[in-house]
Write a structure and sequence with these properties.
Blueprint: H1 6-9, E1 15-23, H2 28-39, E2 50-54, H3 56-61, E3 75-77, E4 80-82, E5 89-95, H4 98-112, E6 116-125, H5 151-157, E7 170-179, H6 181-185, H7 189-197, E8 204-215
Amino acid sequence: MSPVQNAVLADVPAVGRYVFFTLVSPDMAQVRQSMVRLVAMPELEGEQWVLVGLGPELVQVFGAKVPGLRSFDALTGVGVSVPSTPSVMLCWLRGHDLGDLVHLTRHLQNALAPPRRMTQVVDAFRHDRGPNGHGRDLTGYEDGTENSQGDGAMAAAVLQAAGPGLAGSSFMAVQLRLQDFETFDAMTDQIQARRWSGGCAVWCLQARQQCVFLVLADTRRTPGLESPGPVSK
């Protein structure tokens, strides 16, 4: 049986939600109890509906260390501003009906309160299909064509021989971009076509969210991050 959370390598769902949480209280007892409630949720059974990612701050609360897990640095340059806005936890909700995910969001809020509070929700959806069977972004570019498949996907997305308790885990990098469609629509057809063929069709006004999360190999062993567990201390 693969230790990888199923959602890591699964197909892109019809609809989704990215739900971000912050830590209101660092009380260890409350945090542990909320994690117990989280992993007991029936929606986590089979790990198809919810993918759970832990941010560096939450891992530190448990006194654990994960090599490679860190917050992004803010990036600045000529015409570029990418602030770093880390979150304690990210839950990626997957499904076929947005109403179901709204109810699931409520259940997550109840399970994780009071030490954690929801700070942001980003609704997502799969748009159209390109010639290779992948979804498109809203400018028409077929995304995902560079993604590895099979053993290559495992090698690219899953930690292998990374130390005690980490095998099968993943790092999830998240960035929220604001799309400037007016600027894109003003481009000539030739420029738009070059952007499609060049692998990036989204004209971004700026990036707002930049953070990295640890996706544990087995969410059922999350509550205390005890050893032996998914995080080496």
